[in-house]
Amino acid sequence: MTIKRLNKKILIPICIMAIISIITIYSALTYTSSELGNLALKQGLWYVIGALLVAFLIHMKNEYLYRHTIFLYILGNILLLGLLFFAEPVNNSRCWFTIPGIGSIQPSEFMKIFLMLMLATMIHNFRSDYKNPNLKQEFIFILKTLGIVLIPSILTFLQPDTGAVIIYFIIYFCMMFISGIRIRWFFIALGIVLVLGCSIFGIYFFNQDLFINLFGTDLFYRFERIFNWSSGTGLQLENALAAIGSAGLFGHGFNQTPIYFPESSTDFIFAVYASNFGFLGVFLLLGVIIYFDVQIVLLAKRKLVDTDKYILAGILGMLLFQQVQNIGMTVGLLPITGITLPFVSYGGSSLLSYMILVGIILNISMEKAKHYKYR
């Protein structure tokens, strides 16, 4: 009965993206280090493990996650803190725990889910306690939720993983936007961000020595990478654009990526796919992605537990941002930030985290509206 109740409109695009992912990663093996092994086979195994996770979550139900979200949130922060002390540096970043015989685990990928769960339960409890909150009550609530976001954001920024920090705040904004708090708080936040942003950028552009003294060389080089994207220089972007631009309507064909560029199986997986399958292939992939996103929107419009609505808002905001950012940076429209394409790019931790979200979405699609108070 449970299998019959599964939302096929969610499962079908996931299956299509899984096929596209494995095929494209296999095609990218031509320019991938042999030391990494057969990434296409590994991606297939991660999808199998992810499917088992989905089955487990469907059995446990989302209510179980909501009731234990505080423990998951604390665990996520402990793992992020542990990275700073125990993780081996990879490309000057401490973002992964290396497990012999298995691979690497990236806690920030799972922290996105834990953060969604934590914020969803906090918003739910706040709306249950205060039907018509005043400004003071909303302000205190905003400070509490902001603190919940800042803790993992600081720990993740220190790794450093700026892309994950951006996603944390995208999730926070989307969930708070539908939480029912007054719209004026968003204008106030926007004003503060603009003032701080203009001040920091002003120092960066007009006094770089002062910027380095205040914020350090690490942040300076991150800014350099972001602001130099528009020049179109760099082997990675130039070769990716050449591969995409030469693909034409039908592409160069499967496993016929014409030119090398780094991170072909992860950050720049879209360039590999577009070069192999051309405009028609891109049209298919974008259609599947849009269809999947629309199904989440339609699900959120149904009569659901408010906690589920908050979770769906966070999931949709995260996916939309990553999809737009990844494809945009691949074609030179947005800065290169190292953000992967959900369900398509290679990555065990990221794929498992997305499959956990699929399990949550499927549970929501099968549940009837209930009213709980999670503490």
Please, could you describe this protein's structure?
Helix content is 70%, strand content 2%. The protein is mostly helical. It has one domain. The protein is globular. Mean pLDDT is 89; it is low at 369-373.
Radius of gyration: 21 Å
Q: What letter string, H or E per element, gives the SSE order? A: HHHHHEEHHHHHHHHH
Broad shape: globular
**Order of strands in the sheet with the most strands?**
1-2
Q: Major sheet, described briefly?
A: 2 strands, antiparallel
Low-confidence stretches: 369-373
Domain count, please report it: 1
Please bin the fraction of helical residues.
over 70%
What count of helical segments does DSSP give?
14
Percent in strands? under 5%
Number of strands: 2
**Strand-pairing-aware structural class:** mainly alpha
Distance between the termini: 32 Å
What is the average per-residue confidence, as pLDDT, rounded to a whole number?
89
Question: What key attributes describe this structure?
Answer:
mainly alpha, two-stranded antiparallel sheet, 2% strand, 70% helix, 375 residues, disordered C terminus, 14 helices
